[in-house]
Amino acid sequence: MTAIAMNEFPAYQACVRCIMDNVVDDAIRFDDSGVCHHCRRYDELVSSRVLHGERGREAMKALAAKIKAAGRHADYDCIIGVSGGVDSTYVAYVVKQYGLRPLAVHFDNGWDSELAVSNIERVLRNLDIELYTYVVDWEEFRDLQISFLKASTPDGEIPTDHAINALLWREADRRGVKYIISGMNFATESMSVPAWSYGHSDWRYINDVHRRFGAVSLRTYPRFNLPYLFYVNIVRGIRIVSILNYLDYDKEEAKAVLRDDLGWKDYGGKHHESIYTRFYQGYVLPRKFGIDKRYGHYSDLINSGQIKREQALEELRKPPYAEDLQEQDLRYVLKKLGLTGEQFDAMMRAAPKSFSDYRNQFAEVSFLRKSVNQLRKHHLYPR
After folding, report:
1. Cα separation of 350 and 334, whole Å?
2. Helix (H) or strand (E) holding 241
3. CA–CA gap between residue 145 and residue 336 (Å, rounded)
4. DSSP classification of residue 352
5. pTM of the model
6. Distance, CA of 279 to CA of 295 (rounded, Å)
7. Pairing of strands 179-182, 78-81
8. Strands of 102-108's sheet, edge to edge?
9. Are 152 and 352 contacting, i.e. CB atoms less than 8 angstroms apart?
């Protein structure tokens, strides 16, 4: 390799504060002190996204009163999405602590682990929360997941994420509920790397991927587009609120509460309540795309003071999850999707692509997100 060719590769650099580096995120930027733009973004936004201590508790009381008033004539005053994971389960616990009357909504995409099913049933029974489960047509969903594998983008979890959001909007609209309570939280999910995943709100992108690679009509798959978002937000006045941002949310403390009070059991990894998510994030993303989402997850915990940087680096020395379980998951996924090893290997070898290689609404989605952020900044749209 010539000296000129070698100079095409930038010198390795990692953030001195979190663990993000220019290998896992080639768009990362550093200031003169070696702090990355993700950490600077965290510092800029945390004061407007997170409320601490007494201020947060008072704001949560006021929000709960507002939700109760809006839902006083409905069967439920809020909708909560439940996956069995720690964030959504803790939301279920908190809303009951504040006297709300939630309906739990679960999107069954066929990949729930046995532990996730038992956790959901046990927790909701102990909290006396009614559950509505939407079971997606498996042939449709399988076809869409395979389409995204063939599309060769790192967005393989988008079919689930988009459907969950669509289902929550639909159920809130159908049942006359004005508030959807989300488990999203800035303390543990503030990292934003567009190249890692795109399309949560972009039906044009999802539809184009399926149009090119799918074979089964998506008749029952939940979906939404931007005009529908305008309808439910502006016309129907339905809001998504992230109540964990009103609390001093510590993930390990939340797990302890759920274990001790509700009999919830840990999965050993973020989003491991879903077999496909565990496999996709722990096997497909690192091996094909060089994406290890633990870098983002641990960096969020570092910034929120929940772990030390040295502890995160030690965890990264371990495989994403147990290698024998990875092989077990691989066999299960191939069998469930109806793929041969050769077909899957061909998908893994295919050149990586981006959402920009397909029809999309990136500009419109970005504008909508910026508009909502501006409204939040001026207190015209709730968190």
Report:
1. 17
2. strand 239-242
3. 11
4. P
5. 0.91
6. 17
7. parallel
8. 130-135, 102-108, 78-81, 179-182, 239-242
9. yes
Structure tokens of 190? 């503030």
Map tokens 């979890």 to a residue: 157
Neighbours of 161 (CB within 10 A): 16
Among residues 70, 126, 76, 74, which one has the least CA distance to residue 100? 76
Q: Mind listing the pLDDT tens digit of every residue in the chain (383 residues)? A: 344 444 566 799 999 999 999 999 999 999 999 999 999 999 999 988 999 999 999 999 999 999 999 999 999 999 999 999 999 999 999 999 999 999 999 999 999 999 999 999 999 999 999 999 999 999 999 999 999 999 999 999 999 999 999 999 999 999 999 999 999 999 889 998 989 999 999 999 999 999 999 999 999 999 999 999 999 999 999 999 999 999 999 999 999 999 999 999 998 877 789 999 999 999 999 999 999 999 999 999 999 999 999 999 999 999 999 999 999 999 999 999 999 999 999 999 999 999 999 999 988 877 766 665 565 554 434 44
- Output the six-digit token pair for 360: 């999309």
The answer to whether residues 203 and 222 touch, using CB atoms and an 8 Å cutoff, is: no
As given in the structure block, the two tokens for residue 254 are: 């939340």
CA pseudo-torsion sign 339, 342, 348, 350: negative
With 0-12 CB in 10 A as exposed, 13-18 as middle and 19+ as buried, what is 378?
exposed
126 in Cβ contact with 103 (< 8 Å): no
Question: The dihedral of CA 9, 10, 14, 20: what is its sign?
Answer: negative
Which residues neighbour 35 within 8 Å (Cβ) at sequence distance 6 or greater?
A: 15, 16, 17
C-beta atoms surrounding 268 within 10 Å: 11
Cα separations in angstroms, 11 against 6, 58, 103:
10, 48, 52
| Length of the chain (residues) | 383
Phi, psi for 300 (deg, rounded to 5): -60, -45
Ramachandran angles phi, psi of 82, nearest 5° = -125, 135
